[in-house]
């Protein structure tokens, strides 16, 4: 098949959840013998040369400045399209799509996420191929949850405004596609509640199991906790701040040898300047797999967000015992106490971490169960077959 993948950024390097989800589709479609063309916005934040994927796909990279602007955000208050979406609307992208689709025929077009959904009308005008949206999140839910947790009254009002605008956009645009691939069953249900009537197939994100093989030379440091996430995404920062304030302050007083290691790209100033005993901010690490293996108990303190956390699946693939919140575990086929630990209460987190420190938490057993789950359910080879089945069902 000839497949066009429309992306809000060049899906490389595969270091964060969004890039991993897109890159693994590109890579595995290519491995299955399909011809992939990636037309991607090349943002200042994630700028990459187009040739980085030349061994897997033809890449058409369109430079677009998607950086946040207070002025543009203010002017957007008077527009129908929410600011989060407007940042990705570009005449250059429309011209590139028009030129490409006038010259080349595709069997399937896959639009990656809501930020590129605006282009569905143009795609429908220019070609006969089925247009499928791969939903990474139900976006409005992220902003609703952020608004609910926000203490600043003005920020709360603006976040609610954004959530409403995104919800209305999603409600309108979901039904313009021929089908949708939902990343969680929960998201599938939410889309139906929004009034989506087109076919929705649940296809989770997976992991490239070969990238997450344990290195016998790396031994996890005892009595160590770690968090690895994009440190420039609001829900991740909200969760880390919650953990530091409500959990770490307590356990640091009673567990003197306990260490916390934070990793991720673009850490903000307040994290870099924490200056807390036994808290280490590593910033970007070139190998998530190597970093995860160096430390012991994995934490995912997420309060907002949507979709599913690929980093949890990666941690599971490495046999890590993971402590997270219900939001963090959302969309993952896991059982609390068996292959993951889940709680939203700070006192429960303190208890889990204290038990871990004292050797009373079944870290090894939980990690082994998690590793089996990742291999049996989330191997990318299984996931790509679900995409191919969806494509075949909607080809003319």
UniProtKB/TrEMBL annotation:
Coiled coil, from the record: none
A Pfam family annotated for this UniProt entry: Glyco_transf_4
Protein name: Glycosyltransferase family 4 protein
Keyword line: Transferase
Domain (Glycosyltransferase subfamily 4-like N-terminal) ranges: 17-211
Top-level lineage group: Bacteria
């Amino acid at each position: 098949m000839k497949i066009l993948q429309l992306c809000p950024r060049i899906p490389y390097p595969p270091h964060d959840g969004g890039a991993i989800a897109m890159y693994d589709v590109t890579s595995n479609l290519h491995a299955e013998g399909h011809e992939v063309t990636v037309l991607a916005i090349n943002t200042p934040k994630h700028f990459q040369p187009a040739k980085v994927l030349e061994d897997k796909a033809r890449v058409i990279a369109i430079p677009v400045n998607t950086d946040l602007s207070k002025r543009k955000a203010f002017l957007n208050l008077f527009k129908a399209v929410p600011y989060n979406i407007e940042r990705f609307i570009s005449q250059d992208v429309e011209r590139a799509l028009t030129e490409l689709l006038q010259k080349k025929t595709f069997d399937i077009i896959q639009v990656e996420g809501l930020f590129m959904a605006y282009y569905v009308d143009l795609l429908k005008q220019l070609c006969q191929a089925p247009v499928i949206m791969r939903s990474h999140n139900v976006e409005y839910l992220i902003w609703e949850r952020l608004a609910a947790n926000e203490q600043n009254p003005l920020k709360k009002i603006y976040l609610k405004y954004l959530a409403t605008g995104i919800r209305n956009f999603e409600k309108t645009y979901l039904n313009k596609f021929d089908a949708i691939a939902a990343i969680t069953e929960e998201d599938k249900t939410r889309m139906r509640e929004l009034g989506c009537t087109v076919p929705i197939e649940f296809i989770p994100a997976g992991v490239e199991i070969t990238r997450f093989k344990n290195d016998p030379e790396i031994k996890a440091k005892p009595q160590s906790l770690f968090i690895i996430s994009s440190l420039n995404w609001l829900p991740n920062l909200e969760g880390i701040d919650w953990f530091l304030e409500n959990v770490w302050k307590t356990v640091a007083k009673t567990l003197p040898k306990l260490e916390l290691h934070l990793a991720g790209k673009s850490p903000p100033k307040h994290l870099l300047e924490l200056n807390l005993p036994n808290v280490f901010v590593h910033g970007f690490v070139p190998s998530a797999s190597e970093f995860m293996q160096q430390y012991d108990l994995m934490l995912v303190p997420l309060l907002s967000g949507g979709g599913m956390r690929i980093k949890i699946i990666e941690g599971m693939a490495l046999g890590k015992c993971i402590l997270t919140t219900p939001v963090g575990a959302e969309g993952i086929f896991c059982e609390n106490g068996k292959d993951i630990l889940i709680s939203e209460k700070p006192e429960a987190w303190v208890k889990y971490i204290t038990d871990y420190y004292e050797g009373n938490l079944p870290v090894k057993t939980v990690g082994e169960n998690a590793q089996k789950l990742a291999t049996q359910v989330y191997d990318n080879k299984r996931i790509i077959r679900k995409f191919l089945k969806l494509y075949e069902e909607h080809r003319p």
